């Protein structure tokens, strides 16, 4: 599903280059639940962003579903990620002015799905996540765990092939974190490909593969 | 999707109430002001646009030229203008001539007399030319025969009541009988011709005038002449042909000295200010300036919107980032932000329309113009406003939308990355400079206008207009009138409150209507012909008005021969090229064949307002009925009203009750001349103030953002030991710098425009540098006040709070 070859990402400051990612070669197949681990500043998030097409590598090739993403223009990349990728963030990143229901619905609006269909899809998901009673609340009226539930619901409502999560439990109490991780496990069981970035060994245990990264290089790649 | 945008826009507006309120107030105030101003401007520009064939109709205007210089310019044509042009210039389809306006005494029942303004003689083709609505009568024939008349509906109701006026006889000046052959709807206010009675021109040309002189004389002015040109004629090319026609009909010399030119009908009201205009002309410059102020106000309001929206965009970057991540593309975001702009602008314009409607009557009162008060009666203007609203929304919405939708999600979502938006800051600074430039310009203009007004009002007029009551002579005058006038003066002079009294053909406060071509005795019109304004006056006149005699003496009853003496003003001495006032004394002048001698010279005085140049004036005795138009009564005390009843009694007794006594106070009459300038000053100042207010409002909100963004810096500075005043300085510095740039840019522009305005005044102030300095200082003070207050609040905060939050 994902094939990265010789990916490089660096910043130029004057004459010196600072590498964030160096010589990354990585392949992730459909149905995997992979975890990227590493210390702060090791390049985990940058790698995730490149895979999520929010960032572009300075060198190297990136194929997603056999398509050469590195050759695409921004518009086409946007289309790709719109249809195949869902994001979950550490800081949830819900839209403050929208209710729970509307936050979850928004990706469908951008996919131009009909109103009746939208309603059904959102209602199903709310039901699944036990959030029907909270659908008219605004984000600031929810706990962190609930907000992240909404974040996950929003990420998967469009039925993406790939779910990217950047420290999804980083801002949560451990009990709330477990709920999210159980949810990921369930999604994985249902066939979703998941790639998460985390510091937590415990969270990594939920996945099927761990990729350790340090100073921009992939150091280890193993099953937990 | 649109519903979603609307919902989101609305919620966003609610969450940012303060900013939205400022944005909104600015837009509403701005749009309301613009609607009111444009209604006024539109009305002033709408004059004579209602005529169906208006684009083919032109007024012939006559210049009297001597040595290549026009010394008199008449709104009307010479008597011969219409016939000569129509005969010789094939592009001219037809012409219509009017004579007037006159004031007349009119009655139907002998015991009910009405003083009627705006009585004209009009040719039978009148209704072919102009689209005035004839309610009754036949447009083709109603003004054809002598002794026929059309009257307006209002006058018909007043004179005839419920009776049908058609075919009835009205009597003018107690003797001339006209049959009513038509009833016309009252002419609209926005017509440069305002009439109440149209008498058939044939009465004038065939009955009153002999030898067909009213159609052939080239030297007789004051015939309002309108031409209808064939379609698609280039009117500017016709003027040389008029000259040829005049040369062919008379001779080369006449053609050189009597020059006709054309004025497009719709341009007359705002561009023409000649002798014998039918209505007080509009002030084209003022209308232009107000139009400009309207646009500036709108721009300021729009810039506020752009500034505040882009400043807010910091806070919205995160939302943009999220939306892009969950699948929005840029155009969807642009649509979303545009929707918000549309919501705010739409509500603003609705509120503005409501306010403008509510404030309409007050505004009409303020501008003192008979314009319609509801914009909804003016679909054209409404359309323009809506188009303007659309354009404004697009322009103000588009930039913030483009800017905000351009953020990269990865940057927008990372709280640690500095979202450096240098470009946006420059745009914002540019807009602030522009706004303050406008403010400086408006303040400076207001000061210049104010100073000029003061200058005119404070100027030594050379005459005294105080404590003077002016009684108009009766309209109906017979052969005994001059004697009756003497009796009237003698009787009034006996009243204890009356200091002195004198009769004259005109009084100060208006341009003299009587112009005379005069020359030194012994010369003929062919040799030399100086255009003078003539005043016929009693010998007491010059003393009563405190005119200063700088050479010789005033006219006097003690000198038996004073029927043949005259006074000149200094300008008159110059025109005659006498070396000094003294050397003019004793010179003899040919005044229409009469030999008159200069016995004195008066210092130049402002017959009309200092807006007009002082013209050469000759004062001579009252010799005929028509020269005794006014009785100026100088009173002992200021309490003039109590005297009026007494005088009315005398008036009725002396002149018989043929028309009621009309009178006015001279100082008020004189000040009437300043009315349009004073009005312009008032309106301009008001709307300038409004524009400045809106600017400040925007600046207030903008600085709030800046202070918010720099809270942490302020905290650190305070911890490091900065004083409160030091922090206020740091925050204010940037804005003051912008204001100064604005001032530097604005001053040359103001100077240029105000010079243009001042050029309309014959006597005017110099624009001194301190005016601009004051304007800049005021703008700086306003900015400092706005910025300083918020800076102070920020500076006084406990640094612990701001640093913790950051």
Description of the structure:
- The complex is a heterodimer of chains A (224) and B (806).
- Chain A is built from 7 helices and 10 strands.
- Chain A has 224 residues and is α/β, with parallel strands linked by helices.
- In chain A, the strands form 2 sheets. A 6-stranded mixed beta sheet of chain A has the order 6-7-8-3-9-10, sandwiched between helices. Chain A has a 4-stranded antiparallel beta sheet with strand order 2-1-4-5.
- The model of chain A has no long low-confidence stretch (mean pLDDT 90).
- By secondary structure, chain B is α+β, with helices and mostly antiparallel strands.
- Chain B has 3 domains: 76-271, no CATH class; 284-325 and 377-456 and 675-805, no CATH class; 477-657, no CATH class.
- Chain B is 50% helix and 17% strand.
- In chain B, β3 (92-107) and β4 form a beta hairpin.
- Chain B starts with a helix and ends with a helix.
- Classes of the chains: A alpha/beta (224), B alpha+beta (806).
- The interface between A and B is medium-sized, with 27 and 24 residues.
